[in-house]
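Hey, sorry to bother you again with one of my protein questions. A protein chain has come my way and I'm curious about its shape. I'm sending you its amino acid sequence along with the backbone structure tokens. I owe you a coffee for this, so here goes:
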Amino acid sequence: MAAEFHLGDYILVQDGRTLEIFHRTLSSVRRHHVAFLGVDAKPRGDGFQVQIGSRSEDDRIVNGMGLRMDAEQFARFREFMAPAIAARDQTDVL
């Protein structure tokens, strides 16, 4: 069964080895296979700035998006992302 994380106008869906990012007003959906998934988080003020996208060979996040979260949202986000990150770390990318 798919897991979901809601944040404002965004819904992130983790279904097996795919992470999808939906936005309330955008028709396109961002899809990332866990093998290429990149997630960076930096403290910003009283919360966090999170970048999600595909990790390039030079360790940058490309085709990504940024989300601002408070501490409680970030804690839920980390819990939600843990299975995807674990799956990514167990994948051998050719």
